[in-house]
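To start, one record:
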Amino acid sequence: MRMIWNFLTDITGFLSEDKVLDNDDLIYNLSQLTSSLQTFVEVRFERDIRGAFWFIYRTVGGHSSYSEDTDGIQIMTIHQSKGLEFPVVIVPSLKKDNFPMKFIDPNPKSGWIFGSPTYYTPDDCLIYPKFDEEFGEELSHEMEEERIIYVAMTRAEDTLILSSIVDDCEPAKHSALKSGEFTKLPKGPERIQSAINENLENDCVLIDPNNIDIQTLARKTEENDDSYCIDLSFTALENYNNCPFRYKLANQIGFSISEKQEIDEGIFVHKALEIINKEIINNNNAFIGEDKVVEIITDLFEKSNEELHEEDPAEYNKQLNEVTGNVIYYYKNYGNDLKILDSEYPFYLKDKNYALKGVVDLIYEVDGKLGIIDYKNTRLEAKYKDKFKKQLHLYVLALRDQNQEYEGKEISNLQVYTIKSKKMIDFDIDEEYIEELKLELERVAEDIHEGKFTSCSCDDCKYCQYKNICNSQKEI
């Protein structure tokens, strides 16, 4: 990957900052190729040039070319539509026992599902069980199907069209459709049917497939309409503030040139803490014991570092012991008596011109109020204290949003736990600072919308993967 990047920048001079900023078609389409190459690097030897070009040749047809025009029909999965909204949404192929999908025993006596052999993995062998033990397999499946249907239906801003595949329509059903009594029609399992009926209300009409006439709401169009919504996260916000050019490549375009890497220690520790915290929640918020913690870390570390285990057992054991000791210390001194409400809680804050997305490491309850802990795998807490404060206050802003389940609950504790230095750092909630962050989010969203992506120098320039084509670095 690095070799191809150097070919485009240093050897041929094909790629430059000016070209990135002036030619969206080229850079967006090129980013699709780098994404394919990154996938290849993850599963194959990164220096296999012949294999890389063969992989591109075989997969390039599956990519869509870039188009700046957003008008048109977009076809996507329900999962891909999360966070998006459209004036008209069509949910096709609703069919009993098919979509929503009925529950199917994952371990049938016959050993076959839909004409193919099934290879069942017991949930005891999985880090993440496939279903919530509190509700059981079948109810968990129906709840998940309910969430999927809900996501699909709530993507529509003005008009939602539900289409069903049927061989014929019984007279009673046809009468119900014509009279508008949609709630009487069967729509799958009871939970799914309830979810659909609650959103249908009384504004539904039957569309004749032989004479389609969809009456959509008239949308107000203004000559000076400049509405927009920019997706942001804490990382994206920091990237733009440090260097707008890097933000465009890394966050907006997704232009990847990184080499294949083993899971780093920070990601691993976060994953271990997530698993342990969820185990504590499932254990009625009682600490699961040090032996269980060691077992989880050891198992996860082995799966994440198989190559190191084989090549350097001494280094493998050194790293494992260090990580285990750090995590055990946290639970001994801070984390063993918390009333945990959520671990790795995702949020989505929608404002007029931006959408803030992220994940809160830990939410806990103390004296009826909420506490937030963010884990950082560092010893340099003094260096990053301002960033810690900013990230935590963005979490407060998000959790106070009316669309979040914790809206209305007071947040009293903001904390960062630095795993390597074994320190818990407390922050006071600063209401004025939260208002400043709102203005910063609006400003950054406006600058991104206006296409302000010129590079600038910052402390991270020497580590930046895009410095080969950065005008700011050429001027130094």
The chain has 16 helices and ten strands. The CA atoms of residues 89 and 160 lie 5 Å apart. Residues 259-263 have pLDDT under 50 and may be disordered.
